[in-house]
Amino acid sequence: MELISTLIDFIVHVDRHLASFVAHYGAWIYGLLFLIIFVETGLVVMPFLPGDSLLFVVGALCGAGLVNLPLVLAILLVAAILGDQCNYSIGRFIGPKVFKWEQSRFFNRRAFDAAHEFYERNGAVTIIIARFMPFVRTFAPFVAGVAEMDRAKFTLYNVIGALIWVLGITLAGYWFGNLAWVQTNLSKIIWAMIIIPGLIAIYGGWKARKAEKVKAA
């Protein structure tokens, strides 16, 4: 429970924690940011780290002169791209191992073929949009790997998605993060960045499942 409480406090007050880290450890902040973004996007078991809010707060720290903007953008981009590539590779490696025997209880050929077809057809939208959805952005590249989405296509969409995600949210923090109204309501903004995309993802999943049931009927 203490670990969960600490994690929630870090997510909600990520601005204070990062500012404190900069004050105490200086340039090590770049290594910490790389690690957080890489782990959140690269390890399927770590979907709860604060990606969106962290990028926004980092932008605000850059606007306040505490962090170097060009350097941090480069580091975050590399972390986001490598993270998704790592996650994809893990899924690509694990998929054949888990689904080795077609008659095993873990394997469903129809579901696998459907997932593969979906990612080949809708991979661009899925990989790019998933960047802006907590939890979904961690699982999307893993599932793409399991579904054996073409690696070249995945890499292209991975890079495009990372550019839009990192540059868009970090620069938004850089331009608006230090405004008085934003500073006053930052915790609410952080919660909104977590909850709203999450609700959209849940609604999308519910709608897709409903469509499948209608199609099956």
TrEMBL record:
Subcellular location as annotated: Cell membrane
Domain VTT: 49-174
Keywords: Cell membrane, Membrane, Transmembrane, Transmembrane helix
Primary site of residence: membrane
Transmembrane segments: 27-49, 55-82, 156-177, 189-206
Membrane topology qualifier: Multi-pass membrane protein
Protein origin, superkingdom: Bacteria
Pfam families in UniProt: VTT_dom (PF09335)
NCBIfam families reported for this sequence: PRK10847.1
Similarity remark: Belongs to the DedA family.
Protein name listed in UniProt: DedA family protein
Organism listed in the record: Roseateles albus
